[in-house]
Write a structure and sequence with these properties.
The chain is mainly α. The protein is elongated, with a radius of gyration of 17 Å. The protein has one domain. 83% of the residues lie in helices and 0% in strands.
Length: 139
């Protein structure tokens, strides 16, 4: 079980690296709507999204395995349900980033770099919430 936990944490950290960097690319991309910079950012965004997507799935699978292995304990833990709620929001965020990758590739972005600067902060709050829920277990 400890090795699965290690794998889960490594996949989570790797996934979050992508969740932190991809929206930063969107910030830059919102300023360059055509030309070689636009094309380069499209390639970078597509490759990064494809790279971190399996890490999201592996985070989900390893976390599910950990819950399944300790179900008798976890079924009564409120913090776990809160963590799963935050995780669900982060999965939505991930898929929304995939949508934005396609929007930028098609040249259909209508938002400014300021929007993406704020959008970029969302996974930080998700990570903070998950760490607090797992370590402090407030309920």
């Amino acid at each position: 079980m400890e090795w699965i936990k290690v794998f889960h944490i490594v996949m989570l950290v790797s996934w979050f690296a992508g969740l932190f960097y991809l929206p930063r690319l969107f910030v830059n991309h919102a300023e360059f709507t055509d030309g070689p910079v636009h094309e380069r950012l499209c390639i970078m965004e597509r490759k990064l999204y494809r790279f971190v997507s399996p890490m999201m799935w592996l985070t989900l699978v390893s976390g599910s395995l950990l819950v399944w292995m300790g179900w008798d304990y976890f079924i009564h833990e409120g913090w776990l349900y809160a963590k799963l709620s935050v995780f669900s929001l982060l999965v939505w965020y991930h898929f929304h980033c995939g949508h934005l990758v396609r929007v930028f590739a098609q040249g259909d972005n209508r938002r400014t770099h300021v929007f993406y600067r704020w959008f970029n902060e969302a996974p930080v709050f998700g990570l903070i919430a998950i760490v607090i829920l797992v370590v402090v277990r407030p309920f």
